[in-house]
Amino acid sequence: MSSEATPIQGSRPVTPPLTSAGSPRSSVSTEHLHPPTCRHRDRSPSPLRGYLIPSPLPTRRNRTCSATVLASEGPSYSGVCKCFSRSKGHGFITPSDGGNDIFVHISDIEGEYVPVEGDEVSYKMCSIPPKNEKFQAVEVTITHLKPGTKHETWAGRIVSS
């Protein structure tokens, strides 16, 4: 066996030994001082990835063109806002002619103000798939703000009425 070490092919370059500041070989080459390159870590896929369940409620973004046209050509109804939660993104309207409460999604509200309980609204109706047995309000517009309440704009400004 020889006393000299033979380099292994394909190994990383050897960093030169550090020398003291007063030694004649104090200039160290900077080409070997680069930080190590990080490998891209492959993550294991989530077991739920690709199996996301779509929302059954048709919002303005995912409603079909035919449903939008049918709703816009239909009659306009009026009612009173029963409740609306901006954080949840939905609420309910009590029709002025009686009957069951109508669901309203945040994407279907038009105008400057967030509806609050007691606001009079006008709206059109659209059926909710897949069975089309229930209805939701679309093109909802506040016609009269409830007096004596504070209303919030979509930008977050509070207005007293």
Describe the structure.
The protein is mainly beta. It has 1 helix and 8 strands. The protein has one helix at 65-73; strands at 77-85, 90-95, 102-105, 109-110, 120-128, 134-144, 150-152, 158-160. The strands form 2 sheets. The protein has a 5-stranded mixed beta barrel. A two-stranded antiparallel ribbon has the order 7-8. A hairpin with a 4-residue loop joins strand 1 (77-85) and strand 2 (90-95). The longest helix has 9 residues, at 65-73. The mean pLDDT is 76.
- Quaternary: single chain
Mean pLDDT: 76
* Unreliable runs: none
Widest beta sheet: strand line-up: 1-2-3-6-5
Task: Write the element-wise H/E pattern from the N-terminal end onward.
Answer: HEEEEEEEE
Number of DSSP-assigned strands? 8
Number of helices: 1
**SS strand fraction:** 25-35%
Rough shape?
flat
Helical amount = under 10%
Structural class: mainly beta
Summarize the structure.
The chain is mainly beta and 161 residues long. The chain has one helix and eight strands. The strands form two sheets. It has a five-stranded mixed β-barrel with strand order 1-2-3-6-5.
Topology of helices and strands:
Layout: H1 65-73, E1 77-85, E2 90-95, E3 102-105, E4 109-110, E5 120-128, E6 134-144, E7 150-152, E8 158-160
Parallel strand pairs: 3-6, 4-6
Antiparallel strand pairs: 1-2, 1-5, 2-3, 5-6, 7-8
Keywords:
161 residues; mainly beta; two-stranded antiparallel sheet; 6% helix
